Amino acid sequence: MKIFKNGFALFTSTVLVAVIMLTGCGKEDPVLDSSLLLQNSVYNFLSTKSLRYDVNFDVSDPKVGDAEAVLSGAYSYSDSENEGMELNLVASVTDADAGDYKLDASSKIVDKDFYLKLLSLPVIPNFPVEVFSKFVGPWWKIDAGELGGENQSFDADSIGGLGRSVDELDDQGKQIRQLILVSKFFKDIEFDGIESTNGYESYRYKVKLDAEGVADFLKGVSEIIGETTDGQFDFGGMSLADILSFDGDVWVDSLSETLIKVDGIISLVDSSDTKNVSKIDFTVSFSDLNMPFSIEAPIDYQVFDFVAFLGAFFQSGIMGGIGEAVPEEITADEVPAEEITADEVPGI
């Protein structure tokens, strides 16, 4: 019995020591160069072929007003024959002078075609209700050529090559991507443990934005694309570090070394004499990295006639500030819209 008690005591003590050691090791950075790891995480994120995202931000500006927005969606470029992006947005803005704004909309880009859906009637001061009410509910297909010329198209390359590996980029794109690895976006980096985040075992770091490092990166990008940088980063006699800061946490997938979450406060200082400070409470999460899924184009949609829309928009009188009063929010269910298949697409 004495032997059993002594053995049990020894086992218990060993377990306690192991727990204490593991707990202590949880704050010890397993990475030799955390700054390089974070730069790699951004580099690897841009090459991710597919992912889903969720973004929340809350803006507080004592001079202008407040804004809240929730974004979600995905993109997939794992299959070159079936590429796409989607974005869902719910946003509200309280302007100190103009009043309230609201927007609830979804969009898709599939095989360079752009689709837009208004889920409710936007709330905008002096809003031309009669012009927009018919657009609530169905998907609308918009011709990129009508918005930006015959050669205009919607694709990943128009947003910096997101979802493209380095070998898929042109020479300038490759140089810009490589510049990330020798830049410094974060400072005051502090390891904060290993966590399960968005389905990934991740390293968590407390960080601050290295605005000077970001400014150097932007200058390098300008040089790569052949643009002058003289005075480009002078904000009313203030540097980027004077007007922009971020303090928060970042999470990096320990296996793929890919950025999977950012959470913190962004501060923006007005470059005018007032030095007004806007605060943005910001969270972005990524999941299903490089998973084999695709973005599907809407089955039923109507073709958007941009010219006809502009005519109705200007005839509404909103440009002269004489639009109708803002109505109560109208949901998609309250605005009947006949579904039209792709084979029956008429103009407006």
Notes on the structure:
This protein is α+β, with helices and mostly antiparallel strands. The chain has a domain at 34-112 and 154-298: outer membrane lipoprotein receptor (LolB), chain A. The chain contains eight helices and twelve strands. It has helices at residues 2-25, 34-46, 129-132, 144-148, 171-181, 211-224, 240-243, 306-315, and strands at residues 50-61, 65-76, 84-95, 99-110, 113-118, 140-142, 186-197, 200-209, 244-253, 259-269, 277-287, 302-303. The chain has a twelve-stranded mixed sheet with strand order 7-8-9-10-11-1-2-3-4-5-6-12. Strand 1 (50-61) and strand 2 form a beta hairpin. Helix 5 runs antiparallel to helix 6 (211-224). The longest helix has 24 residues, at 2-25. Mean pLDDT is 78; it is low at 1-26 and 321-348.
Calculate the mean pLDDT score and round it: 78
Oligomeric state as shown: single chain
CATH class of the domain at 34-112 and 154-298: Mainly Beta
Count of discrete alpha- or pi-helical segments spanning 4 or more residues:
8
> Structural class, judged by helices and strands?
alpha+beta
Q: Give me the strand/helix succession.
A: HHEEEEEHEHHEEHHEEEEH
How many β-strands, per DSSP?
Answer: 12
Give the low-pLDDT segments: 1-26, 321-348
Quote the beta fraction. Answer: 25-35%
CATH topology of the domain at 34-112 and 154-298: outer membrane lipoprotein receptor (LolB), chain A
Overall shape = globular
Give the termini separation: 90 Å
Q: What Rg is obtained from the alpha carbons, in whole angstroms?
A: 25 Å
Main beta sheet: 12 strands, mixed
CATH architecture of the domain at 34-112 and 154-298: Clam
Side by side, the strands of the main sheet go: 7-8-9-10-11-1-2-3-4-5-6-12
Helicity range of the residues? Answer: 10-25%
